[in-house]
Amino acid sequence: PGDQEAGELGLAAVPGRQAAFRQALEAAVHYARAVGCPRIHVMAGRVPLGTERAAVAGEMETTFIENLRYTADLLSQEHMIGLLEPINNRITDPRYYLNTPHHAAAILEKVGRPNLKLQLDLFHCQIMDGNLSHNLETYLPLIGHIQIAQVPGRHEPDSPGELNFPYLFELLESLGYTGYVGCEYAPKGDTLEGLGWLRSYWESRGLQHRGTSKAAK
C-alpha cells in the first residue's frame, strides 16, 4: 500500500515511486511465499494531491504498465499471479486511480501478461457500474479473485442492501468460476456471528458446514 501515513494507497501507477514500488513488491513476494499464497494484490495508488486526474492520466498509465510488466516477470519466477482491483471513487476513495473493471481490463490488455488478472470486488463494481450479471460474464476470463460485500453498508451478504448474493453465487457456478470468493466486508457483529449467512447458504444448497473441503466446492 505504500506510505499510508503520507496518504498513499498503493504505488504501482504513481509516477516517481517506481523504486519504492519494486521494494514493496519484493517484500510482498517474500510474505506470500512464506504463507503459501499464490496471489498478490498490486495496488494502483491514488492520483497525487494537487493534480487533476485528466492531467496525469497518461503518465500514470505509462507508469502502471511499466510496473505491471516488471511485476509479471517477477511473479512468473514464483508461479504467482498479480491482481488488479478497481476501487470505487464515488464512496470509498475519490482519488484512487483504477476505479472500474473496464479500466482494469484495458490496462491488462495493454500489459499482455497471462499471470496478471482482475480482482473483482462486487461492492465496488456495483457502485461504479451495476450490471453485475453482464460484467461477470464479460470479464470472467480475466478474473483471478472475487470479493463480496453488501451495498451500500459493506456488511454481510444477507444484510439489507442492493445485491442478491444467492443469485450471484449460482451465476458464478454456472459460468464455471472455480476460484475463491473473499469476504471483504465489515461484520455488523463479531466474525463468527457474521458467518451465519454462510452456514444458512450451505444448508440451502444441501452442503455440510463441518470442515471445509466439501463446502469450499
Automatic annotation (TrEMBL):
Gene that specifies this protein: Hyi
Active site (catalytic residues): 85 (proton donor/acceptor), 184 (proton donor/acceptor)
Cited function: Catalyzes the reversible isomerization between hydroxypyruvate and 2-hydroxy-3-oxopropanoate (also termed tartronate semialdehyde).
Name of the protein: Putative hydroxypyruvate isomerase
Entries under PANTHER family matching the protein: HYDROXYPYRUVATE ISOMERASE-RELATED, ISOMERASE
Biological processes per GO annotation: glyoxylate metabolic process
The EC number(s) this enzyme carries: 5.3.1.22
Family: Belongs to the hyi family.
